[in-house]
User: Which sequence fits this backbone?
């Protein structure tokens, strides 16, 4: 008879995805760019926000978009129309982007341009308030959108997404006069789940609040650059080592 | 749909663990998984997809034992530990402080695996990757009754 054995693993279920995400992030750091993962439920206004923000931000930053969509390339076409390079990633069955899909998107992106020339890389995730919260793709910041028409209870019903976000944009605020929802309650519910995130109210339609959002982005780009420029506090190691690992 | 991807991640992790035992293929009895309440995983659905995913694989017959881990926050104002009730919100009941620190509840962790290794001298089947059928000869354990 053989004895039953037991291995104590303590292994994170998502270890493989996290490993690939860390690899993606090494690339982003070597390219000295800031990667943002933009997430929300379907229809909260991710693409509309980018359509509005990207032309404005293009005055200051070189950008590209990895555009996740389950079946179509409609969002990618909308963003290509504003003159920003877009790589569509059709996920098929999967309801979120994972680090391997983003890695595949990066390979396609590199066929078109040198990512080292970029300041900002946007990853527009598949519309879903659940899964994208658990699958990191190597991003430096997570941005979650919540439209006012979704109701004030969503941060309590889908708390992981809002807990993970660095910035939460309450979108479509131009509709507030027509709704009974109180935007203060939405904000309160976000902050009780995640008191450290930045909450901003915006409307891609009227343009209200967009300047504060763009300012937050500029601060994140600056903060990321100063992090990478300070090797003493850089846990990823010196840039030269990263470059050799990437190429 | 989400649990299918989580199951795939679990199978990947188990495959990595199996390779540490090459050339012997462990016969897994139970995989112990901690699932925190503050994750996007529904334990019952995970067990369901696990049972479907391991059919005809080297893990066939292995049980997935899920240990639920409750969400606990710590109030940074008074240091009390509390269990948020989503119906009431996530503020601490003592000081009404937002949920700044999570003590536990984010776990998605394979804590341990119970298994046997084939006895020395016993032919050890060389199995394909997860999801493929093992060779017809020398199955690591009797599974024919489970196969259609």
Assistant:
């Amino acid at each position: 008879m053989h004895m039953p054995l037991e291995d104590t693993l303590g292994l994170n279920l998502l270890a493989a995805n996290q490993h690939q995400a860390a690899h993606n992030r090494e690339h982003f750091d070597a390219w000295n760019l800031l990667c943002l993962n933009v997430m929300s439920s379907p229809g909260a206004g991710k693409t509309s926000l980018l359509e509005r923000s990207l032309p404005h931000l293009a005055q200051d930053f070189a950008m590209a978009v990895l555009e996740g969509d389950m079946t179509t390339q409609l969002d990618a076409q909308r963003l290509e129309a504003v003159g920003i390079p877009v790589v569509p990633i059709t996920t098929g069955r999967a309801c979120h982007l994972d680090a391997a899909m983003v890695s595949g998107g990066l390979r396609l992106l590199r066929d078109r341009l040198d990512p080292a020339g970029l300041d900002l890389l946007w990853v527009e995730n598949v519309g879903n308030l659940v899964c994208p919260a658990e699958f990191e793709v190597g991003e430096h910041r997570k941005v979650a959108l919540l439209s006012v028409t979704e109701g004030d209870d969503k941060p309590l019903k889908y708390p992981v997404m809002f807990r993970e976000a660095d910035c939460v944009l309450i979108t479509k605020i131009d509709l507030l006069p027509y709704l009974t929802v109180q935007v203060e309650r939405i904000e309160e519910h976000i902050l009780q789940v995640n008191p450290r995130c930045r909450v901003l109210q915006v409307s891609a339609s009227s343009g209200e609040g967009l300047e504060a959002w763009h300012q937050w982005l500029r601060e994140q780009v600056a903060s990321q650059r100063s992090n990478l420029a300070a090797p003493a506090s850089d846990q990823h190691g010196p840039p030269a080592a990263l470059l050799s690992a990437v190429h | 749909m989400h649990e299918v991807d989580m199951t795939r991640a679990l199978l990947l992790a188990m495959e990595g663990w199996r390779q540490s035992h090459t050339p012997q293929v462990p016969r897994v009895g139970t995989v112990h998984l901690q699932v925190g309440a503050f994750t996007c995983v529904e334990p019952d659905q995970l067990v369901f997809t696990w049972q479907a995913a391991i059919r005809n694989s080297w893990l066939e017959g292995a049980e997935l034992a899920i240990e639920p881990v409750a969400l606990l926050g710590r109030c940074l104002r008074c240091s009390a530990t509390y269990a948020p009730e989503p119906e009431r919100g996530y503020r601490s009941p003592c000081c009404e402080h937002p949920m700044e620190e999570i003590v536990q509840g984010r776990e998605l962790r394979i804590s341990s695996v119970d298994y046997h290794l084939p006895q020395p001298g016993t032919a050890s089947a060389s199995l394909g990757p997860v999801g493929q059928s093992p060779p017809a000869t020398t199955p690591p354990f009797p599974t024919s009754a489970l196969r259609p």
In short: The mean pLDDT of chain B is 82.
